[in-house]
Each structure stands twice: as structure tokens, then as C-alpha cells.
Write the C-alpha cells for this entry.
Amino acid sequence: MRMPRAIFVLTVAAAVAACSNPGLRDLAPPGQGPDEFSVLPVKPLTQPQDYAFLPAPTPGGTNLTDPTPKADLVVALGGNAAALNPNAGVPSSDAALVTASSRYGVSPDTRQVVETEDAAFRKRRGRWTGLRLFPVDRYNQVYERQSIDPYSETEAARRAGVETPTSPPNE
């Protein structure tokens, strides 16, 4: 008599546990530790050429040792770091691109609109994806129809005569 009750209790516990919704992807950090990706090392200190002509301090402003990862990357790749200055405007080489991309206007709330539309899409497509006994990746379930099979695309390109690099074996 006790065995059927135990099985019933375990079944109910598993069913209730399966109803939890961890969200689109459960990417919560395991603890309350620091975010190691937000820490940037500072540049080394250098001595000025002449201590008599130092610039005035700018509280809340930047200094020479502040990290500038984007500008450093542009310079390392052979670009012009001055083009990253938001006050410099759009470089003439990119003016046509900016004009073409903003020809229908620029919405200031693009991120919010996309987030709302994506939440509505996931709600429509994922009505029954929450009914699982074990944790699964809801993102892949909802967007499965929109995913691309890289092996079939590679084969189609090869049949069309396009040179393609080798890819990992299809397991």
C-alpha cells in the first residue's frame, strides 16, 4: 500500500517541477560574484614631457590611462581611431551606408519593439514546450523551424558549383 503512494507522490512532484519556466535561456550566474567581463585593465602610466604644461583635470572625464578597447582594436587593425569619436560625425566613407540604412526613418525604440515581438512569437510558438519532465532549451524548440542545417546547405552549394571549405563531420 505504501509503494503506490510513494510512486504517486513522486509522479506529482515531477509533474509540478516540470511546470517551472526558467525563461528563454537560463543564463543566470551561479553566484553573486563579480562580473569578470566588465573589468578592463587600465593602460600603463606614462610620464609627461613637461610637468609645467599639464592639462587641467576633468572631474568625471577621461584620462590617458582609461581603457579604450574599441579604439585600440581599430588602431591594431590599421584603422583610424578618430572615426570612433561620436562628436566627429559620420565619416565620408560611410555616409552612403548611413543614408541607405536610415531612408525609412530611425525608430528610437527598436530594441523594445524587437523584444516585444520576439516575446509574442515565443508565446505563440511555445505553447506546449513548457510541458516537459526534464529541463530543455526552449529557445531551440521555438526557433527550430527557422534554423538552417549547415550540412544540407553545404551540399546544395557544392552541387551548384560553389567552392566550399571542409566542415566538421556530420555525426
